[in-house]
Amino acid sequence: MYYRLGLIGHPVKQSLSPWIHSEFLKRSHLKGQYDLIDVHPEEALENVLHHLQHEGYHGFNVTVPYKEKIMNYLDIVDEHAHRVGAVNTVARRGGKWIGYNTDGIGYVRALEEKYPKFFLGAEKNVLLIGAGGAARGIYASLLTKPLQRIDLANRTLQHAENIKIMNETSIQTDILSLERARELCSTYDLIIQTTVVGMNPHENEMIMSFPVLRKEQIVSDIVYQPIMTKFLRDAKSKGAQIHLGHSMLLHQAQVAFEIWTDQLVELEKMDHQLEDILKGR
Questions:
Q1: What is the torsion angle, in degrees rounded to the nearest 10, for the CA atoms of residue 132, residue 135, residue 139 and residue 142?
Q2: Which residues of the chain have pLDDT under 50?
Q3: Which DSSP string corresponds to 243-267?
Q4: Residue 21 and residue 34 in contact, taking contact as beta carbons nearer than 8 Å
Q5: pLDDT at site 121
Q6: CA–CA separation, 112 vs 125, rounded Å?
Q7: Backbone angles phi, psi at 18, to 5 degrees
Q8: Nearest by Cα to 186 from 128, 238, 145
Q9: 234: part of which helix (H) or strand (E)?
Q10: Please, where in the chain does CATH 3.40.50.10860 lie?
Q11: How far apart are the C-alpha atoms of 58 and 98, rounded to whole Å?
């Protein structure tokens, strides 16, 4: 079988997905290609799907600004993606387009690979900073884990409240201002920064500083350009452990590739290769 895969969005030319999925195809000994498909906002998504179907695409990823819009044009949206309210992966199966969201699942996989014992033992407390699409996906996936608390901090509290609504578990969630979250930061076992603050070309910005941290704490940033954000540098200087954003990029792609091909590709050394690529940009 020859796999036709791709990414729709606008713009997409800077995407690292072609390199990642080409490497996945090679490691899985599968034949195929991964295309960048720039869809202008004035173009009808229905026409795009007809084109991809006609061209024999097995699946595609979805990036901004279509993660929510695409849901209205799919035959099926899986339960997790429906809960998150966004789709980043679409597969063609049984003549139907099926939508998935791999962001949060990929984040949890990346965290477990770096810190395999994190979800074991005593129930942990997590602070999630931000209330955008990435936060929704990560929050939904964390709700499946044995955690005691997942607090949400955001500048606009109502946006965080809109995420909390999806919690139907016994896990506690409080909505915090960024100022209150800063005061409580040493009480969490894991702090996750999910906004674009600190991303190039604004690498000197930081959504929140840390007055004090414990060495057992993990501080995570999903921004991967730059790899070492100011947020992570501050956490490391306070003695905490850190978790880099580009690992989530790899793992969410791994989940998507598994959906398309039923192949779980090993990521050995790919994080270092991706890090080198990012440093060269």
A1: 170
A2: none
A3: E-THHHHHHHHHHHHHHHHS-----
A4: yes
A5: 84
A6: 16
A7: -60, -40
A8: 238
A9: helix 230-237
A10: 2-101+249-279
A11: 11
Place of tokens 């990029």: 249
- Name the residue type at position 47: N
- Where in the chain is CATH 3.40.50.720? 105-244
**Structural tokens at position 275:** 């890090």
Burial class (CB in 10 A: 0-12, 13-18, 19+), 36: middle
Per-residue tokens: 176: 């915090």
pLDDT computed for residue 279 by the predictor:
87
- Active site (annotated) includes residue 67: yes
Q: Residues 26, 31, 67, 96: which is the catalytic one?
A: 67
Q: What is the CATH number of domain 105-244?
A: 3.40.50.720
| Both structure tokens of 241 | 């452990």
What is this structure's pTM? 0.94
Sheet of 96-100: strands edge to edge?
31-38, 2-9, 59-62, 89-93, 96-100, 76-77
The answer to whether residues 128 and 151 touch, using CB atoms and an 8 Å cutoff, is: yes
| Amino acid in the structure at residue 158 | Q
